[in-house]
Design brief:
337 residues; mainly beta; seven-stranded parallel β-sheet; 24 strands; elongated
């Protein structure tokens, strides 16, 4: 659909999803205990076009918060069922999607944000434990060819910000523990490092921005904090593993053109902070109670994939910045790490 305001207009669009899933059993025997949240899509603005004839102020904010907890107490030494907690698998959170945004005069505000917060916690006694958060999820503030056109000036600049914070904790006393953030790509235990298919977080994606006069400062930012923790005592017989995997990609401004008629600045920033921690105490009678940890973080502040151009008619600056901080730790007593 379309939304048209003949003269001056103010648009404030908010989409909020908050979900909690809890599954708990004292003794589920061989049955699995699962807590899953699948909130496929949260979008603040998704139109063919949004237009104000003269001046306008537009703000679009989308957020999805998901918390899943699964617990199977079980019996020591038994073969109890597993516990699995899953949030945000292939979920999408968009501020503005597939919308032509036009402000005929000055834009006193033009902002969009997308935020995903996901936490998965799984705990077992004698069964396996799996926690997965944000597998191949997508969080984007301005996306889907949502071109922005401002006829005169963006008097307060613009801001397009995407944030994704994901945590997975898997704990088992006796059996396998697997924590996955951003991906479910199987870890290559036999061949070492495996290329992972992960989540993404993007400020501006495949959406062009045009300002007729002054643009102030246009901010396109993406940030993500990701933590995967897997721990087991590994006291069950056989090959018991603790595995923690993290994978995501962040882009501030991706495959998007910018044109400013007079003065303007562009700041495109991507920030990633991730940890993967696997701990396996293991059974001293075994030598194959292993611990594996892998982290894959890719960040670009400004990335143009084709013939996209950035043009500032008068004076201005273009900043591209990517910051990555991550670590992987694997510890075991009776196996390899």
């Amino acid at each position: 659909g379309t939304a048209t305001i003949g003269s001056t207009g103010v648009v404030d669009a908010d989409a909020v999803g908050v979900n909690t899933a809890t599954a708990a059993s004292i003794d589920a025997d061989n049955a699995a205990v699962n807590a899953t949240i699948d909130n496929d899509r949260v979008t603040a603005i998704d139109l063919q076009s949004l237009t104000t004839g003269s001046n306008g102020a537009i703000d679009a904010d989308a957020s999805s918060t998901q918390t899943a907890s699964a617990s199977n107490v079980g019996d020591p030494g038994a073969s109890d069922g597993s516990a699995s907690a899953v949030v945000a698998t292939q979920d999408l959170v968009f501020g503005i999607d597939s919308t032509l945004v036009t402000v005929g005069g000055d834009a006193s505000q033009l902002t969009a944000s997308a935020t995903l917060s996901g936490s998965a916690n799984a705990t077992t006694m004698s069964g396996s434990s799996t926690a997965t958060a944000g597998d191949r999820s997508g969080v984007e503030a301005l996306t889907g060819v949502s071109n922005v056109v401002v006829g005169d000036s963006a008097t307060a600049g613009m801001a397009f910000q995407a944030v994704s914070n994901l945590t997975a904790n898997a704990t088992s006393i006796e059996d396998d523990a697997l924590a996955q953030v951003g991906t479910v790509t199987a870890y290559g235990t036999g061949t070492g490092i495996t290329a992972l298919t992960g989540a993404d977080v993007t400020g501006v994606d495949n959406s062009n921005i045009t300002v007729g006069e002054d643009a102030g400062t246009i901010l396109a930012s993406a940030s993500s904090t990701l933590n995967a923790t897997a721990a087991t005592n590994g006291t069950d017989g056989g090959d018991i593993d603790a595995t923690a995997v993290v994978a995501t990609t962040a882009d501030g401004l991706l495959a998007s053109a910018l044109s400013v008629g007079d003065d303007g600045n562009l700041t495109a920033a991507a920030t990633l902070n991730g940890t993967a921690t696997a701990t396996n105490i293991g059974d001293v009678a075994d030598t194959d109670d292993d611990a594996f940890a892998q982290i894959q973080l890719n960040a670009d502040g400004l990335q143009q994939t084709s013939a996209e151009t950035i043009t500032i008619g008068a004076s201005g600056n273009v900043f591209g910045q990517a910051l990555v901080d991550g670590g992987a730790s694997a510890t075991t007593v009776s196996g390899s790490a």
